[in-house]
UniProtKB/TrEMBL annotation, chain A:
It is found in: Membrane. It catalyses: [GlcNAc-(1->4)-Mur2Ac(oyl-L-Ala-gamma-D-Glu-L-Lys-D-Ala-D-Ala)](n)-di-trans,octa-cis-undecaprenyl diphosphate + beta-D-GlcNAc-(1->4)-Mur2Ac(oyl-L-Ala-gamma-D-Glu-L-Lys-D-Ala-D-Ala)-di-trans,octa-cis-undecaprenyl diphosphate = [GlcNAc-(1->4)-Mur2Ac(oyl-L-Ala-gamma-D-Glu-L-Lys-D-Ala-D-Ala)](n+1)-di-trans,octa-cis-undecaprenyl diphosphate + di-trans,octa-cis-undecaprenyl diphosphate + H(+). One of its GO terms (biological process) is regulation of cell shape. InterPro entries: Cell_cycle_FtsW-rel_CS (IPR018365), FtsW/RodA (IPR001182), RodA/MrdB (IPR011923). The keyword Membrane applies. One of its GO terms (cellular component) is cell division site. Pathway: Cell wall biogenesis; peptidoglycan biosynthesis. This is peptidoglycan glycosyltransferase. It holds the Pfam family FTSW_RODA_SPOVE.
Automatic annotation (TrEMBL), chain B:
This is Penicillin-binding protein 2. Residues 677-751 are annotated as: Disordered. It is a single-pass membrane protein. It comes from Streptomyces flaveus. Residues 61-246 form the Penicillin-binding protein dimerisation domain. Belongs to the transpeptidase family. The keyword S-adenosyl-L-methionine does not apply. It is found in: Cell membrane; Membrane. One of its GO terms (cellular component) is plasma membrane. Its main location: membrane. Keywords: Cell inner membrane, Cell membrane, Cell shape, Cell wall biogenesis/degradation, Hydrolase, Membrane, Peptidoglycan synthesis, Protease, Transmembrane, Transmembrane helix. GO terms for biological process: cell wall organization; peptidoglycan biosynthetic process; proteolysis; regulation of cell shape. Residues 298-659 form the Penicillin-binding protein transpeptidase domain. The keyword Protease applies.
Length: 399, 751
């Protein structure tokens, strides 16, 4: 009952039994942020439908079982949901104490990717093969541990009341903490995750109240880093091509520009109402690659139309809106930073993912939170939801 | 942590959180806007693109329609053959560009490896035939005569023959019923070129990569109708090309059949007789040149007088149209296009033009009447006509005294026409032409439709030429530089002519008008023009556009679109003049220059009134051209042999034999209706069954009269090979004697 003890540490309300607390007037359930929860569940369910539509006849992937991906997606959602409950139960403050261990574990896992245990899936060397046909993408968990780790460092002295803002030394430590896994992920190379992590760092720094110099400095470094990466040839040919295809979509529509072109055709052909689930010819014809993962939004665009795809954006908007509220309303800087990190993560990853299918962002292998198929990503975003809920339930109710 | 101060909410953090929120929502707004743009604003365009994305078209070519003769006998149809083709794209993927495979293939097919390799190379300006003229992406046929054994060998060892296929395909067949090959009229097919595909892309009849296109003759003229419409089956496919379902499909519409007015039997007679006449002419000695006649080319046209429909049209030298099927070999191509073989691809009935000589005379006759001269005359038929120092002789310098225009036609008196034409020339101002010269002789020729296409439904007809003032002017302009360069006042004949032309070639001189009046000089006509004019005289004055196509009948026989005879004008003569000329032309056949081919040798003139006109045109530097124009009530037969001798001499027997075959006339003048091939023009159209089959009569091969009587006492049947081979041995029976008799009379009469 660590959750209970964590709760008691917050010091609000008398101690009650778990069930009583759950259903009491000011209970945990009552205080949960329901809009986020319902939006996340809805997104996951829509995602399940889209994943099913995208994979039911991809026999080379689904091993002859049209429900293979659907079942797994729902299973992942369920596990993710359980992880969220566990996270709420534990509370983000309890987790704070475990941050060094979690951080160490996640860095160890991404290091494993660089060893022969690592596997390349869909051109990105970001996976660890597990026995039983499962695979893990540890960079998803690193996103969380970077947020938690930086928040811990940056908020420590502020929350203790020592300082109004984190000092330079603390910021430097926090940046160092983030840089280590980012560099490792860059070596994989998993450029999409690196971009997300950099944005997370930016969001965390912003919310921590660190000096403007740090924020601007980080933006400058990010730009310089991008140029350096480009110039030093760290990028693979395919990654350069993705950018080239983004800059010029007409480029080689059969080759590099193919994905984005087909994705745009799929979404564009959906119109207002879409073709109906399972009726999209682009989807059934499998013209868009990676349609159950990175390009899942194209299924929504084609089969559910503007209304369906717009609903996904709306639900993501609700999650982000509520997250912003949580960030603003929590009293501790730690909670604020964690929420802001999650906002930066979700916002950028959604923007990049949907943006690439719409042709306004270059292609990068990033899943759409809740909607895309993929266990690691699903677990990570649900843990993030759990963190947000935890921050929310543990702030004092308005008096 | 129990006493958390409110510092977590410092203003800086608060402001930054609001900045983050604004940023986040502007990102979402961007996505929403872009989504609206793609789906709502541009949605239709993308939907269209999407539908084009996953539809794969499988094209099944339409079966090309048959070309039928007037009774339904196919003269061009299709047969299934085993075609061995090579895919260039596959061959080029191999290290040696497929050389090893092709060599192996040549071995199996019993061909030379080089021949096979030549066939798969692409044609360009420097590559001689054989080469592939079609699309490089289409399988290139190596042979369409593979035996089942060869095809099996290739198929069973497909790993040894990558890129090679052996499949049954419908290929064009020129059936040559009864040995009538009709080559130039039918034309030929060759693969469609990339240019043509692009050009026809957006018309209602786009080409397919695998299409064969008519290149000449009927195949070209009626290409669109014969070709039909290829079937397109549209499959919805996924990105790997796997079929997901069938979309809207257009079934193939087989090409329509073209029913022609050609009668295969008459065609065979015409071809055979033309060939024979030319052979015979080559045996004759030409006094003028001191060598035998060359008879290098010839043509014969049999036309329905009342409709302008072509019953047969033969051109010689000829070729086997099947040479084109399945890609032409280098040897064949060289032969077909070479000067040595005298261009057998030319259809000389519509593309051969030469001076008409005396067959032209009906035109100056009508012109003279139109200019106000009386038909009855009399006009002096002297043995020669003088203009200054120039002497224009009558043919063989014979005089007939004062005669009518009709008699002048009968005996083909040149001097009568010399005088009339010269007189008109003088009336028009002579060397100083009046501004509004009436030019009756030239104007009338134009009214006869000369120097213009007759409008026959065959491509590339030539116009011939009337050397009127305008033409002289144009011609002089185009040639004066070369004339003035080569001309010499006191040089040889050619140089003197050039010299003269350089000085005054633009002017219509007295001599020009005299030469022109008897169809000499620069006058050029085609056999089809002459046939059109003479059939118009026969039918009372209507000049029909000659037609070979008679009807277009859909493959199931349900839709019949008749090609009705169309006229392009009336002859420029009154009914009376027509009747008088008609009478005179009958006189030619009964007592004039053609009598020894008809009335004198058993033609039943009372039953089938024959009209004729002979012509022997002189061509500078060449032997005379033989012209023979004839007509009955129903048919007009025009024949010409270049460098063949006199009109009735060289062409006469052949024309007579064609009529004998048409009407079933035997040598003693009896008409045997059973032997008559076509005593009346074929009126009805052949019946085509819904399943596409055609009720066509069996064709008996043509057996020339001489051989028929000599070889077999019983009537020859088409199935008896012994009777079908024309024997070169003519023996010394009665018919042969008669024939010799006919030729011995050669030159006895004037032309």
């Amino acid at each position: 009952m660590t959750g209970a003890s964590g709760f008691s540490v917050s010091g609000y309300g008398p101690e009650r039994s778990v069930w009583a607390r759950l259903f009491a007037r000011d209970s945990l359930a009552r205080r949960l942020d329901w809009p986020i929860l319902l939006s996340a569940i809805t997104l996951s369910v829509i995602g399940a439908a889209l994943v099913y539509s995208a994979t039911r006849n991809r026999t080379e992937l689904n091993q002859g079982d049209p429900y293979y991906f659907l079942v797994r997606h729902l299973l992942n959602t369920g596990i993710g949901f359980a992880l969220m409950i566990a996270t709420v139960w534990l509370g983000h403050r309890t987790l704070r104490t475990a941050v060094p261990i979690l951080y160490g574990l996640s860095v160890f896992l991404i290091l494993l990717v660089l060893t022969p245990l690592g596997a390349t899936i869909n051109g990105s060397h970001a996976w660890i093969k597990l026995p039983g046909g499962f695979s893990l993408q540890p960079s998803e968990f690193v996103k969380i541990t970077i947020i938690l780790g930086m928040a811990m460092l940056l908020a420590a002295r502020v929350d203790a009341g020592d300082k109004p803002y984190p000092d330079h030394r603390t910021v430097l430590q926090a940046l160092g903490l983030a840089t280590v896994p980012i560099l490792i992920v860059l070596l994989m190379p998993d450029l999409g995750s690196v971009m997300v992590m950099v944005i997370i760092v930016l969001g965390v720094l912003l919310a921590s109240g660190a000096s403007n110099r740090w924020v601007l400095g980080l933006i400058g470094t990010g730009a310089a880093g991008a140029i350096a990466v480009w110039q030093l040839g760290v990028l693979d040919e395919y990654q350069i091509n993705r950018f080239a295809a983004f800059a010029n979509p007409e480029l080689d529509p059969a080759g590099v520009g193919y994905n984005t072109n087909q994705a745009r055709i799929a979404i564009g052909s959906g119109g207002l109402f879409g073709t109906g689930l399972g009726n999209g010819s682009q989807t059934t014809g499998q013209f868009v690659p990676e349609q159950q993962t990175d390009f899942v939004f194209t299924v929504a665009g084609e089969e559910l139309g503007f209304l369906g795809a717009g609903l996904i954006l709306l639900l993501l908007g609700i999650v982000l809106w509520r997250a912003c509220r949580i960030a603003r309303e929590t009293t501790e800087l730690y909670g604020t930073i964690v929420a802001a990190g999650i906002i930066a993560w979700f916002a950028f990853q959604s923007f990049e993912n949907v943006g690439m299918t719409l042709g306004i962002m270059p292609v990068a292998g990033l899943p759409l939170p809740f909607v895309s198929y993929g266990g690691s990503s699903m677990f990570a975003v649900w843990v993030a939801v759990g963190l947000l809920q935890s921050i929310r339930v543990q702030r004092p109710m308005s008096a | 942590m129990t006493n958390i101060p409110e510092t977590g909410r410092t203003p800086r953090v608060q402001i930054r959180l609001i900045i983050i929120q604004v940023l986040v929502f502007s990102l979402l707004a961007t996505l929403g806007g872009r989504l609206w743009y793609l789906q709502i604003r541009e949605g239709d365009a993308y939907a269209k693109e999407a539908s084009g994305n996953h539809v794969q078209q499988v094209v099944s070519p339409a079966v090309r329609g048959s070309i039928l003769d007037a009774r339904g006998v196919p003269i061009a149809d299709n047969e299934t053959r085993l075609v061995v083709s090579a895919s260039r794209t596959d061959l080029l993927k191999m290290k040696d560009d497929g050389e090893a495979v092709l060599t192996k293939l040549a071995d199996v097919l019993g061909l030379k490896p080089k021949d096979v390799m030549d066939k798969v190379r692409l044609c360009d300006s420097e590559t001689p035939q054989p080469c592939w003229n079609g699309s490089p992406y289409q399988p290139i046929p190596i042979t369409d005569e593979a035996t089942p054994k060869q095809a099996l060998q290739i198929r069973e060892r497909s790993e040894d023959f990558p890129g090679i296929t052996a499949e049954p395909q419908a290929v064009r067949r020129y059936a040559s019923p009864g040995d009538a090959n009709t080559a130039q009229v039918l034309g030929y097919l060759s693969p469609v070129t990339d240019e043509e595909i692009t050009k026809a892309e957006h018309t209602n009849s786009p080409y397919l990569r695998s299409d064969m296109v008519g290149r000449s003759g009927l195949e070209r003229q009626y290409d669109q109708q014969l070709r039909g419409k290829a079937g397109v089956t549209r499959y919805e496919v996924d990105n790997l090309g796997r079929v997901m379902g069938e979309a809207k499909s257009d079934p193939a519409e087989p090409g329509a059949n073209l029913v022609t007015s050609i009668d295969a039997r008459v065609q065979r007679v015409a071809e055979y007789e033309l060939q024979k006449a030319m052979k015979e002419a080559r045996k004759e000695f030409d006094d003028n040149t001191g060598e035998n006649y060359k008879a290098d080319s010839g043509a014969v046209v049999v036309m329905e007088s009342k409709t302008g429909r072509i019953v047969s049209m033969a051109s010689n030298p000829s070729y086997d149209p099947n040479a084109w099927v399945g890609g032409i070999s280098g040897k064949d191509y060289a032969r077909l296009t070479g000067k040595k073989s005298n261009y057998p691809l030319l259809n000389r009935a519509i593309q051969g033009q030469s001076a008409p000589g005396s067959v032209f005379k009906v035109i100056p006759t009508a012109a003279a009447v139109n200019a106000g001269y009386s038909f009855d005359g009399p006009y002096q038929c002297s043995s020669s006509y003088n203009i200054g120092s120039q002497v224009f002789k009558n043919f063989e310098s014979k005089g007939y005294g004062p005669i009518s225009l009709g008699r002048a036609l009968e005996v083909s008196c040149d001097t009568v026409f010399y005088r009339l034409s010269h007189e008109e020339w003088k009336r028009d101002g002579g060397n100083k032409p009046k501004k509004n010269a009436s030019d009756w002789f030239y104007k009338t020729a134009h009214q006869f439709g000369l120097a213009k296409e007759t409008g026959i439904d065959l491509p590339n007809e030539v116009t011939g030429r009337i050397p009127d003032r305008q033409w002289k002017q144009d011609y002089w302009k185009a040639n004066k530089d070369s004339w003035c360069r080569t001309g010499k006042k006191n040089g040889d004949y050619a140089e003197r002519i050039a010299y003269e032309n350089c000085l005054e070639g633009n002017r219509l001189r007295a001599g020009d008008s005299v030469n022109y009046s008897i169809g000499q000089g620069d006058t050029l006509v085609t056999p089809i023009q002459m046939a059109t004019i003479y059939s118009a005289i026969s039918n009372g004055g209507t000049m029909y556009d000659p037609t070979v196509g008679k009807a277009i009948v859909s493959a199931d026989g349900k839709s019949v679109q008749e090609i009705k005879p169309k006229s392009h004008g009336k002859l420029p003569m009154s009914k009376q003049t027509r009747d008088e000329i008609d009478e005179a032309l009958e006189g030619v056949a009964t007592r004039g220059t053609a009598a020894w081919r008809f009335a004198d040798v058993g033609w039943p003139q009372d039953k089938i009134p024959m009209h004729a006109k002979t012509g022997t045109a002189e061509v500078y530097g060449k032997q005379t051209t033989s012209w023979f124009t004839t007509y009955t009530e129903d048919y007009t037969v025009v024949m010409t042999i270049s460098q063949g001798g006199t009109g009735s001499g060289a062409s006469g027997p052949a024309v007579r034999n064609i009529y004998d075959a048409l009407y079933g006339v035997s040598d003693d003048g009896k008409i045997d209706k059973k032997k008559a091939l076509l005593p009346q023009p074929q009126k009805s159209l052949p019946k085509i069954q819904p399943d596409g089959s055609i009720d066509a009569p069996k064709i008996k091969k043509y057996v020339p009269q001489e051989e028929a009587t000599q070889e077999s006492p019983q009537p020859a049947t088409g199935d008896d090979p012994a009777a079908t081979v024309p024997s070169p041995n003519t023996g010394n029976n009665r018919d042969t004697r008669r024939r010799t008799d006919r030729s011995k009379k050669r030159r006895r009469t004037t032309e």
